[in-house]
Amino acid sequence: MAGLLLTALGLCLFIPAGESQVFTIHVEHSRIHVAVREHAFISVRPSAEITGGSWAFGGVTVARWIADTVSYGNGYSSRAELFTSNGSLLLQSVNASDSGEYLVTMIAKGGSPASANITLRVFFGSDRSPGGLSAGATAGIVVGVFAGVAIVGALAAWLIKRNSSRMKVPEIHHRSIKPGVNNTLATDVADSSQIYENMPRHQKSTAHPPNENSIYMGLILEDQSVYSELRRYERRTFDK
Predict the structure, then answer these.
(1) Using one digit for the tens of pLDDT, what is the confidence trace for 103-137?
(2) Per residue in 139-175, is it b (16+ CB within 10 Å) or e — as a string?
(3) How many CA atoms lie within 13 A of 105 on its CB side?
(4) What angle do CA 186, 188, 192 make, to 5 degrees?
């Protein structure tokens, strides 16, 4: 019985009371893009309570703090602000030279250090920013859209005009000839024939008689048969 108790006690001594939590730094955005002269806020959050830390850029100290005491590096005291509660950093009125990688280091109360890297990109207003387009690209898209709309509108108008012209029924003007009514051509030919017949005999020898075909074609359908019969009678009379 005593042996069992000693064995259980030995096993308890070798079982760790609990694993310690690993200290880490959570970065809200590992890449930050800001326009020139705007503010860049680099947000971080430690996984445990901290006693101090530092920010560095290109091997140069930006800020260092212990508890609530903060000291800034050269060129940053007037435009940098450190939040000691979580170690976040604010850079005011950034310029192109601020672009690059920033290193933050923190020390937890238990003495465990942790670090994280954040990349800052400072761009000019005409440059392309993530999630957006430059002014030139936006203007190009707008021009392209308007050009596309104009082309589509012109094509639609052409198709409508083409279809409308196909659907039109051509108007055919028929010249109606009413029975018993002489048309203009028949009247003119009849007048010519009457003039020729009323000429004196000596003038007929020099004048040209009206064309019989013209007289015939100028008559209406009913008169054409009468004219043909009359001509046949005249030929028989002359032949005698």
Answers:
(1) 999 999 988 999 999 999 999 875 554 455 555 55
(2) eeeeeeeeeeeeeeeeeeeeeeeeeeeeeeeeeeeee
(3) 12
(4) 115
Across-strand partners of 121? 33
Q: What is the rounded CA–CA span in Å between residue 231 and residue 219?
A: 14
Tokens 């279809």 correspond to: 163
Question: The dihedral of CA 165, 168, 171, 172: what is its sign?
Answer: positive
How is residue 148 annotated by DSSP?
A: H
Distance, in Å, from the CA atom of 160 to the CA atom of 154, rounded to the nearest integer, reads: 10
First CA to last CA distance, the chain? 174
Q: Are 204 and 196 in contact (CB under 8 A)?
A: yes
pLDDT in tens, 38-91: 999 999 999 999 999 999 999 999 999 999 999 999 999 999 999 999 999 999
Say what the pTM is.
Answer: 0.48
Pairing mode, if any, of strands 31-35 and 113-123? parallel
User: Under a CB-based contact definition with an 8 Å cutoff, are residues 46 and 87 in contact?
Assistant: yes
* SS3 (DSSP) at 19: coil
Q: Is 14 exposed, middle or buried (0-12, 13-18, 19+ CB in 10 A)?
A: exposed
Share of the chain above pLDDT 90, in %: 41
DSSP string, 172-205: -------TT---HHHHHHHHHHHHHHHS-HHHHT
CA distance 158 to 152: 10
